[in-house]
Amino acid sequence: MAARNIAAHIEREVIDKPKNWKPLVYCWRGGNRSGALATILGAIGFQVTLVSGGYKAWRAALVAELADIASQFSYRVICGPTGSGKTRLLHALSARGAQVLDLEALANHRSSVLGHIPGVPQPSQKRFDSIIWNTLRTFDPALPVFVESESKKVGNLRVPDALMEAMRASACIDLRLPDEQRVALLLEDYDFFVADPAHFCSRLKALVELRGKAVVEGWIEKVEAGKTHEVVLELLTQHYDPMYAQSIRRNFKQYDQATVYPLPERSLDTLDLAARELMQPRSIRPQSLPAFSDRPAVPGAPRALYVIQGLLGQAADRLDALPCPSDRSQSTCLRPWRGPFLLSFSSWRAHAGVFRIRSWELPNSLS
């Protein structure tokens, strides 16, 4: 029977493979079945790798190593209420070459009651663990890893305990964005709800237990009346923001000392400027700064002064040379007005804004 099964495998899976194909062979415990298949494939001429101990041993080794590797890094946790641009900032950081662990992208979920992405299934828990491990092992422990302030679960998937513990003990960056910009960002990122109001309404029903039937029915009526913008704003102010305020300080130990980073708006140029600033050594140290609402508005620089793109870097250097406010040290000042000032150059710059996850494709059955 074993010989018949091996012959069937070869006829179905191997017969069309080139000579340089390098199969990975395993079974549950790494016993005679995988050993026999590896021997025959080797005799045919393929370079075979046999998983010693089978999938069971592989899984045990991965779980143990994941716990070890997760504790090796210094994390910079991007915090901020729903719609503040945390994920977009991770994308901008990645585009600039920073080490980014985007758990929501790996989990195919946006980590909230409304975070399910239509038509995109989540991986299995084992696959999720494998992808996290494989992503972390490509990182340099000498450099910071940027990650979003996730809860213990992203959709139906659980973030590994060791990673969650390391994240919750790490320095935080508190991202702020005006409410109207947050609403606009969410309508862009959740455009499938805008395109399919019935689906949006069906997902809102999941909030009945938390917000009450009358409130949710009111939201549904507004969505059906075309007032999705109004509903999103109420979801933020009445649901997500209060829950966030309660959980963030309870779960992230350094949040009260977080570096506050206000964004004036949600454009790619703004996020790229923020990414560049946050990647500088002085900006990744936690520093207590005034709240966004306490900061005076700073007018942008006149366009006429800097109409040549090459002057952008010089202007930034001159801004950096200015003294920090008295309540901040020169080495850690984030200069929150620097972003709005440099936005006057946004029309001169183009940004791809493309995020590519570096991932080794594991066999589906191994994940």
Topology (SSEs and partners):
Layout: H1 2-14, E1 24-25, H2 32-44, E2 49-50, H3 54-70, E3 75-79, H4 86-95, E4 99-101, H5 103-107, H6 125-136, E5 145-148, E6 153-154, E7 157-158, H7 161-168, E8 171-176, H8 179-189, H9 191-195, H10 197-204, H11 208-211, H12 213-224, H13 228-251, E9 259-262, H14 268-278, H15 311-321, H16 338-342
Helix pairs in contact: 3-6, 3-7, 4-14, 8-13, 10-12, 12-13
Structural notes for this entry:
With 367 residues, the protein is α/β, with parallel strands linked by helices. The chain contains 16 helices and nine strands. The strands form three sheets. The chain has a five-stranded parallel sheet with strand order 4-5-3-8-9, with helices on both faces. Strands 1-2 form a two-stranded parallel sheet. It has a two-stranded antiparallel sheet with strand order 6-7. Helix 3 runs parallel beside helix 7, helix 4 (86-95) packs across helix 14 and helix 10 (197-204) runs antiparallel to helix 12 (213-224).
